[in-house]
Specification:
With about 325 residues, the protein is of the alpha/beta class. Helices cover about 25% and strands about 25% of the residues. Strands 3, 4, 5, 6, 7, 14 and 15 form a 7-stranded mixed sheet that branches. The chain has a 6-stranded parallel sheet with strand order 10-9-8-11-12-13, sandwiched between helices. The chain has a two-stranded antiparallel sheet with strand order 1-2. It folds into 2 domains: about 160 residues, Medium-chain alcohol dehydrogenases, catalytic domain (Quinone Oxidoreductase, Chain A, domain 1, Alpha-Beta Complex); about 150 residues, 3-Layer(aba) Sandwich (Rossmann fold). Helix 2 packs across helix 3 and helix 5 crosses helix 6. The two termini are about 15 Å apart.
Length: about 325
C-alpha cells in the first residue's frame, strides 16, 4: 500500500460557474480502516452537474451537504476493496459502489457501500443514470404503449438513456432537447429519439410543436425553464410530468445554482389535468431492484447502450467538470483511475 493518495478539494468559491482553477488535486494520507470499516481503492467516479449546486451552498431538504473551501468533493464511485477488517461478506478485490468519489482511496462504514453482483455487464455502468431514467419513466410517469414522450436534456446522463428506455417501454414517439445541432443529430441516429429540438435557436415551444404535432403524454424534465413551459403548452389532456433536474437554473452563470425559478401557466395545468411530480428517488431497498435486472438484460442484448465519456486520471477531473458544465460531452462523464 502507498502511504499517500490523491484527492480533489475545493480550493476557492467561484464567482459564477466553477473552473479548474477553483479546485486542487492534493496528496493525502491513505486512510486506515477501523473494525467494521472498508478501505476502497477507487477505479471510477462520476462527474455530475449538481456539484455546482453544492458549491453554491446546497439546497435545504436535499440529502447532500454544501461544499466549502478545503472540502474533498464527493460523488458516486466504484472501487475495489483493499481491506475490510471485521466485515463479513467483503474480501479484498471485491467491487463496491459508494459515494466517496473524487479521491483515489476512501474509507467508510461497511453499510455505506454496496457490493456489485455483475447484474450490469460493465462496472462503470453503475455510475450511469439508467436507474433514474427507468424509474422516472416506468414508475413515476407510467409510460404506456403509444405515448409520445419529451425528454429535456436528452444528451445528458439521464436523457441519453431515457430516450432509449422510453422506446423499450413502448413509447410510440420520443423527442429530446439538446444544446447543439450535432448532438441533436446523435440523439436521433444513436439514442432512440425520433426528433430533437435545439435550445438557443428558434423558441423551444415552436420546435416542439413541429416535432410532436399531436402533443406529448409524458415529460421527463432535466432542465426546467423554457423547456418546461414548452412542454406544458404541448401537453395532451392527462399528461404526466416527472421533474428530475433543473439544469436551466443549476448551470446559469448569473445564479448561485441553488434556485431554478420558472413562470408557468397554472390554468393550463388545470385545464389539461396535467400531473406534475418531482422524481421520487430510487427504490433500492431490495437486494436487486427491478431496474437493474431490466437494464442489465437490455445492455447485454444490445437493445440499450450506455453513452459515456471516460477521462483518464484524477488530475483531469476538474477539467472534466468544466467540460460537462459547458455541454461538451454526450452522456455520462466518468473519471477512470
Amino acid at each position: 500500500m502507498p502511504r499517500t493518495s490523491r484527492a480533489v478539494k475545493l480550493a476557492a468559491l467561484p464567482d459564477g460557474l466553477p473552473g479548474p482553477e477553483h479546485f486542487s488535486v492534493v496528496d493525502v494520507p491513505v486512510p486506515v480502516p477501523a473494525d467494521g470499516e472498508v478501505l476502497v481503492r477507487n477505479r471510477y467516479f462520476q462527474v455530475f452537474p449538481s456539484l455546482r449546486t453544492l458549491i453554491g451552498g446546497g439546497v435545504k431538504g436535499t440529502p447532500f451537504p454544501p461544499l466549502r473551501p478545503g472540502d474533498t468533493l464527493f460523488g458516486a464511485a466504484v472501487g475495489e476493496v483493499v481491506a475490510a477488517p471485521g466485515v463479513a461478506g467483503l474480501r479484498p478485490g471485491d467491487l463496491v459502489r459508494h459515494w466517496l468519489g473524487w479521491r483515489e482511496h476512501a474509507v467508510m462504514p461497511a453499510g455505506q457501500c454496496a457490493p456489485l453482483d455483475g447484474t450490469l455487464p460493465d462496472p462503470a455502468a453503475h455510475l450511469g443514470q439508467a436507474g433514474v431514467a427507468y424509474t422516472a419513466l416506468a414508475r413515476d410517469a407510467r409510460v404506456r404503449p403509444g405515448d409520445t414522450v419529451f425528454v429535456s436534456g436528452g444528451g445528458g446522463g439521464v436523457g441519453s438513456l431515457a430516450g432509449q428506455i422510453a422506446r423499450l417501454l413502448g413509447a410510440d414517439r420520443v423527442v429530446g432537447s439538446t444544446g447543439s445541432p450535432d448532438k441533436a443529430a446523435r440523439l436521433v441516429s444513436e439514442l432512440g429519439y425520433d426528433a430533437a429540438v435545439v435550445r438557443g435557436g428558434r423558441p423551444i415551444a415552436e420546435q416542439l410543436a413541429e416535432a410532436a404535432p399531436g402533443g406529448i403524454d409524458v415529460l421527463v424534465d432535466n432542465v426546467g425553464g423554457e423547456q418546461l413551459q414548452a412542454a406544458i403548452t404541448a401537453a395532451r389532456p392527462g399528461a404526466r410530468f416527472v421533474l428530475v433536474g433543473t439544469l436551466a437554473g443549476q448551470l446559469a452563470p448569473d445564479r448561485s445554482g441553488t434556485t431554478a425559478p420558472v413562470e408557468i401557466d397554472t390554468f393550463q395545468l388545470i385545464a389539461k389535468r396535467i400531473e406534475m411530480r418531482g422524481f421520487g428517488g430510487l427504490d433500492d431497498a431490495g437486494p436487486r431492484p427491478e431496474w437493474t435486472e431490466r437494464v442489465g438484460a437490455w445492455l447485454r442484448s444490445g437493445d440499450l447502450t450506455f453513452p459515456h465519456v471516460r477521462v483518464a486520471g484524477i488530475e483531469h477531473a476538474p477539467r472534466a467538470l468544466q467540460e460537462l458544465i459547458g455541454g461538451r460531452h454526450l452522456g455520462a462523464v466518468i473519471v477512470e483511475l
